[in-house]
Amino acid sequence: MGRKRSSPINVLSEWVKRQSMRMKICLGAMVALLALVALKLTIHDLNHFYIGSEFIHALGIIVLIYKLTTKKTCSGLSLKTQELTALFVAARLVTIMAGGIYIILDVITLMATLWVIYMIRFKLKSTYIKELDNFPLYYL
Q1: How many CA atoms lie within 13 A of 131 on its CB side?
Q2: FRET pair for 135, CA 20 to 30 Å: which of 7, 39, 85, 94?
Q3: pLDDT band at 4 (very low <50, low <70, confident <90, very high)
Q4: Domain-by-domain residue ranges, the chain?
Q5: What Cα–Cα distance (Å) separates residue 89 from each residue in 54, 106, 108, 111, 136?
């Protein structure tokens, strides 16, 4: 029968696709700036964002451990960046001033990161390709 009307989101998406790259970049910058202003005006307690980001980071590493244990390969992972992450979390844990949930989340993240390093170095050493781990060592 008749053609269905597109949703406003689809119409907007098609309009953006038709714009030039310069216009898309300007629109993206304006949307990002408006989002930052909206966050600044509406959010007054940033602790929730910190706790959420730490929780998501710890959850991501736990999912990575699950993948390493089920797939039995660490191909594509950088051992050097995992070591840098562990170093950063350990330094933050040593210098942390607050207590409670912050320390718990940092300890979980550090332990999970150390487990990933252990898996790459010892358990899955045969699947680790050192030549492709081209993260510059002087960053460490």
Answers
A1: 1
A2: 94
A3: low
A4: 8-42, 47-139
A5: 11, 7, 10, 10, 20
